[in-house]
Amino acid sequence: MASVSVRSVSKLFGSFRALDDVSIEFDDGGFYGLLGPSGSGKTTLLRLIAGFEYPDAGAITIGGESVERRPAEKRDVGMMFQSYALFPNMNVFANVAFGLTVRGVPSGEIRTRVGEALELVKLAGLEKRRTHELSGGQRQRVALARAIVIRPRVLLLDEPLSALDKALRTGMQIELKRIQREIGITTIFVTHDQEEALTLSDRIGVLRDGRLIQEGAPRDIYERPRTAFAATFLGDANLFEGTVEGDAIRLDDGPPVRTDDPLPAGGTRVTIAVRPERMTVSAGSPAAGGARNEIGARVDEAIFAGNSLTYMLTHGARSVRVFAQNTGAEPVAAGAPVRVSWNPADTIVVDA
């Protein structure tokens, strides 16, 4: 296994800058998620690490060895594609064995290693099945077995679960994490699914327009996003603008609110983010004072989702969303005035 280092990497396709001076360290044995919208550069970064593209600037090392100009077949990297790219004319065994066969591995060793890989992904006994006879989840496991059977130092996954339905995808997230922990391989995966990134990753890199916006542990990025983009892309967030007044922020369309974050000088314009699940909706109008921040709002709709409620509110000219647990109590009726409150610690000052 090996660590991966990407330092000041840029990549252009014509005049389009797909990656712009990106630096990330991928720890040996870690599970790292690259998250971002379409066109953010996450798949380009994966292809540069794999060797399918070469960077225009910067350095890439695997296990301390420079590889940015090394061909893909000499990087000792396994890759699983979004489409799985299985061979329909081959059975499960032949698909998994393909990488070993082209490397000239002896047939006895191929049988042993394919058997171990299929055991790991819980497909033992299906060696003779054709790919069209498999479910979507089984095809995904075949593709994963083919990627790991060559015993690569690094495993790259490009949207590995996007072709599966929600129920199957949730189960495969658990399986994928189990397999990664068992073999201890450095794993880097691309996803646009926020929940998937939070569930699987030890660390996350958020990309936008070819730049790394924020990088760190999933909880750290979720709890303390640095930018409005990171706050709204990784989870839901209510954004407010205001002006610093002493140790508080006076909202443009509301009262002053407090934060535990450091504030710039008085008079400075700032943007704050508040997670919907950190807010509480109560009937009535805000009261003066109190330890919690409070704003007034009107209920537009209360959306029932089984174990939770989503309140769609209007505060001034702004829409506000609040998540609440379903405690069995009747939700506040549409049109009613409410007070929305939250702790100062949950007021996150972000870069707009």
Automatic annotation (TrEMBL):
It is an enzyme of class 7 (translocase). Part of the ABC transporter complex PotABCD involved in spermidine/putrescine import. Responsible for energy coupling to the transport system. Its EC number is 7.6.2.11. Pfam families: ABC_tran, TOBE_2. This is Spermidine/putrescine import ATP-binding protein PotA. The gene is potA. It catalyses: ATP + H2O + polyamine-[polyamine-binding protein]Side 1 = ADP + phosphate + polyamineSide 2 + [polyamine-binding protein]Side 1. One of its GO terms (biological process) is quaternary ammonium group transport. Residues 4-234 form the ABC transporter domain. The complex is composed of two ATP-binding proteins (PotA), two transmembrane proteins (PotB and PotC) and a solute-binding protein (PotD). Belongs to the ABC transporter superfamily. Spermidine/putrescine importer (TC 3.A.1.11.1) family.
